[in-house]
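[Automated response] Your request has been received and processed.

Submitted sequence:
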Amino acid sequence: MAKQLDPVNEFTVGEVSKLYGIPESALRYYDKIGLFKPISVNQETGYRYYATEQFELLNIIQYLKYLGMPLKEMKQHFEKRDEQYFLQLLIHCKSVNENKINELAVIQHRFNQRIEELQTSLNITDVGVARIETLPQRNILCVREQIRTRPEMELSLKRLEQITRVKASLFIGRVGVSIAQQSLLERDFSKYSAISIFPEEIIDSEQSLVTLTAGEYACIYCRSTLFDSDQYYGQLLDYIDEKGYSIAGDSVERIIIDQFITNNSQKHLSSIQIPVKR
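Generated structure:
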């Protein structure tokens, strides 16, 4: 038999919803899963009623939800009402939240890095000007295979993802390709020999991890896209010869700004780097 309530202590779903700022659909869902059930239901109208003595339970549910505890685990706690179980539940939720905080820190770092790079890139004035730079050691994820077309490049990128278990979509603007040293010596720019991901932070993956050694690199910024950089490669190789350097390894070409960032092709930007030695 349904509990008879004092009309003054009788709150409908809508009233509790307004008091707590909780959607009515959420309260009905809590009822459905047995987490927070009305104290009384009018059998004629089907109206659900809550009482003030239930409000503390709803306060606890809101608190645990704020802490990130899943509803299923809340329900299990209220069924058990065991202090040790509740303690372990809180410890588990704390660990889950710490992992989320770490993930958000990585995302924040990537935002900062990408914003800084784009701000710098939009102000570059020396496009097409070759130069020698001393670059630090860098670790990249790389798959070596011949790439002659864009479809081949996309498939190679997917293979790189599968091998390394790293999603390239998480590294927008950090994907690059290479031309083999021998092809550079032959001035054959018709194919790439590798595709790479340039992570913004340390990657916990030893699969296909390649180290770009620290040292001197002949560099040039380009207003071009992949498979359309022949002119810049030729210009950079001429510069290497003029300065008395020799090619010391494969090139590294990375798109920084492409059609997915701007429709203005005059703003597209990539970077080519070739290791060199005297």
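Summary generated for your ticket: The first helix runs from residue 13 to 20. Helices lie at 13-20, 24-32, 55-66, 71-80, 83-122, 150-164, 181-185, 230-242.
If you did not submit this request, please reply to this message.
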